[in-house]
């Protein structure tokens, strides 16, 4: 078969001169690359859609289930037939959740900042799951407060967030790992786009960067045992962690603990301007459809081939994640343009 008949077969015009032969050869390459890309995308989508079997024999432990993503995830996993163990911080949260779910969902009181509470939950879970082990651990519990300019924080302000979002995730994972290994299951860690782009002072961004790196190290260390580690990176959603009233109350508290010298360097109007801009941004970006996040968590638990990272929400996919690959000066300039200037800035 000569090249002319190949070109004709592919719909290209037969060429005669040297130049047009090169052009047709380029077209052939293009066609080959496009075909490969389409086939690769079809194979990826097919692989991504494959699900595990025997869901109703698998146990999943979720932390922070009183409200928000954790609460919705438990209800959805329960409907799917999973044996859900919901870690709730309060009795009221546990009772409310039980009222809206089936008899298979069990709740356990859990404070991820307390070693005793984590140990107690693990012993109870070990009895519950038996020889099968634990299929999934979703480290979802988290808090955002206090958030604000770094200079306004004391060490205990950083620690109050790190204790829940960072140390809590690490201790829960290490404690429950033997049960996960037994089931060759999954660990699903909830990070944030603020674990990719550090846009706020306080412990929140630090803790979410820590969750990202802890999860990466863990995934590389334990894949030998058939355990998978997935990271969820939600954008901004309307939940407890983005609720404006507590965020603003905490900003006032931080302001009130500053010395008069530091206050003077920011000026009288700074706090009000800061709060106004924060309100404007949060109202503009926060999405109320929490299922965008729980869909990712469900995929991580149900898929035969879970992804390493899931970005949830349009702001994450189109803004925050692309921004995280840009030079730091782009984010520096963007924030400089948006945030208020202190009175004594140079
Ligand atoms: N919403 C967002 O825009 C967003 C974006 C990116 C990532 N995330 C992450 O998503 C996760 C879930 O947050 P959410 O948005 O669903 O907010 P949420 O409704 O406030 O959920 C967080 C849950 O964690 C619980 N919790 C707090 N401290 C705890 C502790 N020491 N031990 C156990 N549980 C504790 C909270 O209980 P109480 O309500 O009783 O305090 C609450 O039920 C967090 O890790 C958060 O950082 C959220």
From TrEMBL:
<dbReference type="GO" id="GO:0016491">
    <property type="term" value="F:oxidoreductase activity"/>
</dbReference>
<dbReference type="Pfam" id="PF00106">
    <property type="entry name" value="adh_short"/>
</dbReference>
<protein>
    <recommendedName>
        <fullName>Retinol dehydrogenase 5</fullName>
    </recommendedName>
</protein>
<dbReference type="InterPro" id="IPR020904">
    <property type="entry name" value="Sc_DH/Rdtase_CS"/>
</dbReference>
<keyword id="KW-0812">Transmembrane</keyword>
<feature type="transmembrane region" description="Helical">
    <location>
        <begin position="28"/>
        <end position="46"/>
    </location>
</feature>
<keyword id="KW-0472">Membrane</keyword>
<dbReference type="InterPro" id="IPR036291">
    <property type="entry name" value="NAD(P)-bd_dom_sf"/>
</dbReference>
<dbReference type="InterPro" id="IPR002347">
    <property type="entry name" value="SDR_fam"/>
</dbReference>
<keyword id="KW-1133">Transmembrane helix</keyword>
<comment type="similarity">
    <text>Belongs to the short-chain dehydrogenases/reductases (SDR) family.</text>
</comment>
<keyword id="KW-0560">Oxidoreductase</keyword>
């Amino acid at each position: 078969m000569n090249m002319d008949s190949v070109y004709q077969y592919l719909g290209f015009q037969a060429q005669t001169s040297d130049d047009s032969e090169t052009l047709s050869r380029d077209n052939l390459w293009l066609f080959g690359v496009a075909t490969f890309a389409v086939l690769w995308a079809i194979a990826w989508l097919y692989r991504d859609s494959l699900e595990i079997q025997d869901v109703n024999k698998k146990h999943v432990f979720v932390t922070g289930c009183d409200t928000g993503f954790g609460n919705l995830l438990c209800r959805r996993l329960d409907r799917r037939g999973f044996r859900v163990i919901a870690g709730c911080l309060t009795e009221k949260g546990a009772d409310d959740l039980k009222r809206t779910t089936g008899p298979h969902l069990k709740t356990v009181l859990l404070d991820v900042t307390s070693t005793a509470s984590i140990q107690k939950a693990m012993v109870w879970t070990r009895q519950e799951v038996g020889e099968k082990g634990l299929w999934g651990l979703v480290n979802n519990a988290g808090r955002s407060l206090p958030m604000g300019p770094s200079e306004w924080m004391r060490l205990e302000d950083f620690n109050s967030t790190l204790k829940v979002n960072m140390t809590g995730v690490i201790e829960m994972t290490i404690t429950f790992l033997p049960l996960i290994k037994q089931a060759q299951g999954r660990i699903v860690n909830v990070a944030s786009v603020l674990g990719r782009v550090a846009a706020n002072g306080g412990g929140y961004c630090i803790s979410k960067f820590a969750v990202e790196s802890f999860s990466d190290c863990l995934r590389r260390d334990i894949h030998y045992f058939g355990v998978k580690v997935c990271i969820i990176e939600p954008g901004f959603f309307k939940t407890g962690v983005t609720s404006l009233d507590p965020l603003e109350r905490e900003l006032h508290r931080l302001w009130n603990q500053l010395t008069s010298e530091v206050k003077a360097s920011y000026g009288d109007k700074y706090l009000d301007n800061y709060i106004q801009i924060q309100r404007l941004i949060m109202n503009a970006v926060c999405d109320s459809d929490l299922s965008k996040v729980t869909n990712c968590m469900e995929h991580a638990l149900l898929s035969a081939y879970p992804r390493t990272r899931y970005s949830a929400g349009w702001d994450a996919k189109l803004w925050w994640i692309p921004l995280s690959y840009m030079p730091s000066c782009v984010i520096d300039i963007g924030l400089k343009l948006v945030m208020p200037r202190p009175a004594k800035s140079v």
